[in-house]
Amino acid sequence: MTNSHAARGIDTSRPHSARMYDYYLGGKDHFEVDKQAAETVATAYPGIFVCARENRAFMHRATRVLAREHGIRQWLDIGTGIPTEPNLHQVAQSVVPDARVVYADNDPLVLKYAERLMRSTPQGRTTYIEADANDPETLLTAPELAEVLDLNRPVALSLNALMHFITDARDPYGIVGRLLDVLPSGSALALSHCTPDFDPQTWEKVTAIYTGAGTPVQFRAQKDVARFFDGLELLDPGIVVGHRWRPEAGQGHTATDEPLTDAQVSLWVGVGIKP
């Protein structure tokens, strides 16, 4: 990509977490500054590529499980990131063609690719909202959300690799609680979160890299990730490392020649249902 995007409100002078994630996934929607930052992270934590792929794989499996086994037909995906096919709505609509999905992100680069996020099946609906996860009220009152989602019916709140970018100073638990408050019984939370539990020293280095690049992060221990699910009924197998969450669900589990280690993945995931 070139710096011609700067005129469109896209900051190309410093790395961005969404574009770095695109690089981890082998995409092409990033700049040289993102590649350099991502490779610095990879030097400290070579497993970052595995972590990114397993995060994506978890999203695929969780979406299929919620659609097939729990009757979910609506999703609110916050922190969407740069579209990487299959996107959440494509996964959901492959199971239930009438699925409705609202994507939300605050990165102008994601807005540039929003059209790709709205290629729905004829039976379903998708839309994109430019909004900040730190401001749930603006997101929840967006007209586009009301046009696509019926908040009187269950909704899956999808927060994949998002909450470690919201530090405790910004009240992450309050944000998730507010989002869940408006959703009815039978709704779900699907969440993934990077963790230092298996290699604290390495993740200290990763934290320093992101923070030094202007993106504060807070990677959390399992007990702190579990707090996001307070009041929800966790689906089996509970809060586990990403590749261990229902690999039997298929179509979304990364195939590897050798078994993955928890330290490679370093990602807590879980799905909970609102009673």
Description:
This protein is 38% helix and 15% strand. It is built from 12 helices and 8 strands. Strand 1 (74-78), helix 4 (88-95) and strand 2 form a beta-alpha-beta unit. Helix 1 (17-24) crosses helix 2 (32-44) and helix 2 (32-44) packs antiparallel against helix 10. The chain is globular. The N and C termini lie far apart (46 Å).
Topology, please?
Elements: H1 17-24, H2 32-44, H3 48-70, E1 74-78, H4 88-95, E2 100-105, H5 108-112, H6 114-117, E3 125-130, H7 136-140, H8 143-148, E4 156-160, H9 172-181, E5 188-194, H10 200-212, H11 222-226, E6 233-234, E7 240-241, H12 262-265, E8 267-273
Parallel strand pairs: 1-2, 1-4, 2-3, 4-5
Antiparallel strand pairs: 5-8, 6-8, 7-8
In short:
This protein starts with 16 loop residues before the first helix and ends with a strand. The chain is built from twelve helices and eight strands.
Could you name the key traits of this structure?
alpha/beta, 15% strand
Tell me about the biggest sheet? 8 strands, mixed
Beta strands, count? 8
Structural class label: alpha/beta
Specify Rg, calculated over alpha carbons: 18 Å
**Low-pLDDT ranges:** 1-8
List the total number of helices. 12
Give the overall form: globular
Distance between the termini: 46 Å
Task: Tell me what portion of residues adopts beta-strand conformation.
Answer: 5-15%
Helix and strand string, N-terminal first? Answer: HHHEHEHHEHHEHEHHEEHE
Mean pLDDT: 90
Helix content: 25-40%
